[in-house]
């Protein structure tokens, strides 16, 4: 069985968060989704568990980070090309997200970032496969 990752994120309004990510093209696994949690499918082995604050608090003994005051994590996702990076950021902004940083073009790598409605930062990037193979 391949190794998987489940990123757990606290959300204030589960339905609103699900609607936001559905607008970006993500789906949810109904087997692990209820009124307190939603399992967002990022890939076959990567998932984001969107948890109500109450549910999240049951797993974390420390207070939930105020994302208006600080950044708790940078979640980086790859895309197949620059256009796909721009497309998901554009969709995020249209769905109620906000810009976290301006696009960064390093030639062999291109990235842009947005904040979801709960302030979690999603960095989206593309890297030229030829540049990776040259390493």
Can you tag this structure with a few keywords?
135 residues; alpha/beta; 2,3-Dihydroxybiphenyl 1,2-Dioxygenase, domain 1; 2 domains; four-stranded mixed beta sheet; 36% strand
Describe this protein's structure.
- The structure is a single chain.
- The chain has a four-stranded mixed β-sheet. The protein has a four-stranded mixed β-sheet with strand order 5-8-7-6.
- The relative contact order is 0.18.
- The two termini are 29 Å apart.
- It has helices at residues 14-23, 53-57, 82-94, 129-133; strands at residues 5-11, 27-29, 37-41, 46-52, 74-78, 98-105, 109-115, 121-127.
- Strand 6 and strand 7 form a beta hairpin.
- It has two domains: 1-63, 2,3-Dihydroxybiphenyl 1,2-Dioxygenase, domain 1; 65-135, 2,3-Dihydroxybiphenyl 1,2-Dioxygenase, domain 1.
- The chain has four helices and eight strands; from the N terminus they run βαβββαβαβββα.
- The chain is α/β, with parallel strands linked by helices and 135 residues long.
């Amino acid at each position: 069985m391949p190794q998987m990752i489940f990123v757990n994120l606290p959300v204030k309004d589960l339905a609103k968060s699900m609607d936001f990510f559905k607008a970006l093209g993500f789906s949810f696994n109904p087997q692990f989704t209820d009124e307190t949690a939603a399992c967002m499918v990022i890939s076959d082995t990567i998932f984001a568990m969107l948890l109500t604050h109450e549910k999240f608090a049951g797993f974390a003994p420390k207070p939930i980070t105020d994302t208006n005051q600080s950044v708790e994590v940078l979640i980086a996702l790859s895309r197949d090309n620059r256009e796909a990076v721009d497309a998901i950021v554009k969709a995020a902004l249209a769905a109620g997200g906000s810009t976290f940083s301006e696009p960064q073009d390093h030639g062999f790598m291109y990235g842009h970032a947005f904040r979801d409605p709960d302030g979690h930062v999603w960095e989206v990037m593309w890297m030229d496969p030829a540049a990776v193979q040259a390493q």
